[in-house]
């Protein structure tokens, strides 16, 4: 019979997260830069999509690496905060180098989404780790 593709499996799939990050945030960047012509909008979408896809992978891995090295409140807050700040720096740099016309509008939504995503992901993983440790 083969493995079924359940929602739970898709929801925890890193490739699915990366692809969704690319499509959603790349699409937002196209919209945010549409007033500057097709070329500028598509380039911004490609840059944002590529960075978002890579950051999705990097965010998960970085907080998973940092979290076990911390305890208590710090384990909940520091890993996603550090990862989020690094994400913001990479987005600003990537869009600055590619000449994205509307950098702040382009990165506002992806940063809000990525900060929300990585904080929620980290909190859930930390709670799970504490339940396992305390059992």
Characterization of this structure:
- With 135 residues, this protein is mainly α.
- 83% of the residues lie in helices and 0% in strands.
- It has five helices and no strands.
- It has helices at 7-11, 14-32, 38-66, 72-98, 103-134.
- α2 runs antiparallel to α5.
- The chain is elongated and about 60 Å long.
Tag the structure with descriptive keywords.
135 residues, mainly alpha, 5 helices
Overall residue-averaged pLDDT value: 90
Q: Mind telling me the C-alpha Rg?
A: 17 Å
Helix content estimate: over 70%
Instruction: Give the percentage of residues in beta strands.
Output: under 5%
Secondary-structure blueprint of this entry?
Blueprint: H1 7-11, H2 14-32, H3 38-66, H4 72-98, H5 103-134
Brief digest:
The protein is an all-alpha fold and 135 residues long.
């Amino acid at each position: 019979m083969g493995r079924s593709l359940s929602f739970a499996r898709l929801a925890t799939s890193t490739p699915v997260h990366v692809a969704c990050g690319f499509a959603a945030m790349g699409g937002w960047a196209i919209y945010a830069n549409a007033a500057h012509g097709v070329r500028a909008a598509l380039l911004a979408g490609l840059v944002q999509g590529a960075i978002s896809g890579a950051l999705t992978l990097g965010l998960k891995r970085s907080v998973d690496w940092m979290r076990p090295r911390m305890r208590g409140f710090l384990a909940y807050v520091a890993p996603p905060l550090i990862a989020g700040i690094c994400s913001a720096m990479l987005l600003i740099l990537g869009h600055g180098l590619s000449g994205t016309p509307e950098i702040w509008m382009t990165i506002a939504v992806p940063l809000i989404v990525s900060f929300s995503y990585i904080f929620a992901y980290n909190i859930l993983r930390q709670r799970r780790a504490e339940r396992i440790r305390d059992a």
